[in-house]
Specification:
116 residues, eight-stranded antiparallel beta barrel, 6% helix, mainly beta, single chain, globular, Cyclophilin, 43% strand
Length: 116
């Protein structure tokens, strides 16, 4: 499934994987959240509820552009830099094309919806 992600003047898409956690995530769409910078390699947004904790890591091919769910905090993690996978992460999907839109620094309203 494709989703559309929009914040600030950025608008891009991601492809979700076919796993129970990603399907649970799509059941919440559309979502209006807040996205903000975290560390030096990701942006995060807190979901209104926890997701099903299936398909958890670690996974060997962690890469910039991954869209993950961080189990302990219940947040989405949009990775734009290298990161280490762990058993606390569930990979939900991957950004289509480039991840440069995530380099826009700051905190912004975020809209995530199914792409039509």
């Amino acid at each position: 499934m494709k989703i559309r992600i929009a914040f600030a003047d950025q608008d891009f898409t991601a492809t979700l994987y076919d796993n129970p956690s990603a399907r649970d995530f799509t059941s919440m769409l559309p979502l209006d959240l807040t996205i903000s910078d975290f560390s030096n390699n990701e942006k995060i947004a807190y979901l209104p509820r926890k997701l099903k904790e299936e398909a958890r890591g670690p996974f060997p091919d962690a890469a910039p552009g991954d869209l993950c769910y961080y189990i302990p905090w219940g947040n989405l993690a949009f990775f734009y830099g290298n990161y280490r996978s762990s058993s606390d992460l569930i990979r939900l999907g991957h950004l289509d094309g480039v991840f440069e839109p995530l380099l826009t620094r700051g905190e912004f309203p975020l809209r995530i919806e199914r792409q039509s």
